[in-house]
Amino acid sequence: MIQYIDKYRDQFGVEDICRVLRAAVRGFITSRGYRKAKTRPPSARAVRDEILIEEIRRIHADNYHVYGMIKMWKTMQKASWDIGRDQTARLMRLAGVRGVVRGRKPRTTTPSSAPDLRPDLVERDFTAPAPNRLWVADITYVRITSGFAYTAFVTDVFSRKIVGWATRSSMTTEALSLEALEHAINTALCKFDELVHHSDRGSQYVAVAYTDRLAEAGIKPSVGTVGDSYDNALA
Fold it and tell me: Does pTM surpass 0.70?
């Protein structure tokens, strides 16, 4: 409330702002209360916060603006500051500084060098008249302490249910996408005479082992165009 009045006092005046707030906002402040708050000396916590914020900004700048909360907390403690981890996070937010996340985002779709002559049987029409008529497949990832965890999944378009999935620390065909496909096939327990499997043109799906498994199960392969996420938007 004090900050709001400070922002608009020159435009509307303190008395007028407080009068409007009194009628419109619960927990209003009077003009007398505002002036009293402005003349009140800062608390010991506020004074200490200002000192710590300046120190945090200095350490952050001295270390190429890359320190996150944990490193900042440990560095402050090494400098003999009595500060907790949560307090460090709060003061870093107030100081407007944050750490830099190491590493690049992984590419889950790596184009294959081999030609892919499979057609696009879906053409962005992500509808199906019944289960096991159209599956879409893709790969995603999540950052963990040791790197990345990758998850391949197969989704049934009719029910939007994930019918097959696999999670691994690498994106090889046999250890990820093919395992998710096997999971989907074993879960369905039906014939796949009318089933279409749609994916992007990533190397995990162009691989011979993957296409051979689709053919063995009687599933029709379908792929979108290169570099167009909308061709596999449902996945």
Answer: no
